[in-house]
Design a protein that fits this description.
The chain is of the alpha+beta class and 269 residues long. It has a domain at 205-262. The chain is 46% helix and 26% strand. It is built from seven helices and 13 strands. A hairpin with a 2-residue loop joins β2 (71-76) and β3. α5 (197-223) packs antiparallel against α6 and α6 packs antiparallel against α7. The longest helix is centred in the N-terminal third of the chain and has 52 residues, at 3-54. It is globular and about 90 Å long.
Length: 269
């Protein structure tokens, strides 16, 4: 064999080898990506199932999910997303720190004022939650109402990183120099457990406005039945501004709804 032919054969072998190497490397990368995506889909399905199952219990319970991959919880004014290997839209409101590692504990509470607004989901992992607050007694009192695997992780002590001005039902919290309102203990739970409560609050405002709009439309439709819903409509409209909310308004709507039912009119909720 001539020297030139040997060089050509070696070059040909090297080219073919490079092609095969590129092919199998690409295949391996795609297979790895496919497996990771499969794991991600399985995780998302498990999380969705766990959150849905929590709604079926009337007791204060939580559930634990082991995580093969860490997750990030991202909040924007357009809602929440769960980031594993890529961003996945979450159609729920989540109070959580940003990073959840190794295992996830989930707890659920419905939010009503007085009709159902939305569901709150609280997430945490096995890491401790340290709360330096000016209102130790109040934070300790709401901590005691949480499931065991949440309250066992919360350490409360005197400080000014989490400033609460108010009571169990209404007030403001100041975190990272931002003063944000809360209404109801469910929102106060979220303030304790969330790493971005101001974003959580903005999403709640949107949900309240949606619920108010739905019930206003329902009241106008029911008015055609001959019953008078004008008074309850005027009270519902006051729910739109969470800063001015008080339980007098909520109690008034509850009483008006009961009165409508007592005179054989359809209840608004």
């Amino acid at each position: 064999m001539k020297k030139g032919e040997m060089h050509f054969n070696w070059i040909f072998i090297m080219i073919v080898g490079a092609v095969f190497l590129a092919f199998f490397t690409g295949f391996a990368i795609k297979y790895k990506d496919l497996q990771e995506r499969k794991t991600e889909i399985t995780m998302l399905n498990n999380i969705n199932t766990a959150l849905t199952n929590l709604q079926s219990s009337s007791f204060v319970i939580s559930t634990r999910i082991d995580l093969p991959l860490d997750i990030n919880i991202d909040c924007s004014n357009n809602g929440y997303s769960i980031f594993i290997n890529e961003k996945n839209k979450a159609d729920v409101l989540i109070a959580s720190k940003k990073n959840i590692k190794r295992s996830m504990h989930a707890w659920y509470q419905p939010y009503k004022i007085p009709f159902k607004i939305t569901n709150f989901y609280y997430l945490t992992d096995d890491s401790p939650i340290n709360i330096a607050t000016n209102n130790v007694n109040l934070v300790n009192s709401i901590k005691e109402e949480m499931p065991d695997d949440f309250k066992s992780k919360i350490n409360v002590y005197n400080g000014n990183n989490f400033v609460v001005n108010g009571d169990l039902n209404k007030g403001t919290v100041t975190v990272d120099e931002k003063e944000v309102p809360y209404f109801g203990k469910e929102m106060l739970y979220a303030a304790v457990l969330s790493s971005n409560y101001s974003c959580f609050y903005n999403n709640i405002k949107n949900e309240i406005n949606k619920a108010v709009s739905i019930h206003e439309s329902k009241a106008r439709i029911l008015t055609k039945s001959g019953c008078n819903y004008n008074l309850i409509l005027s009270k519902i409209n006051l729910l739109s501004d969470i800063n001015d909310l008080d339980y007098g308004i909520v109690k008034s709507i509850e009483d008006l709804n009961k009165n409508l039912i007592s005179i054989n009119c359809a209840g608004l909720y």
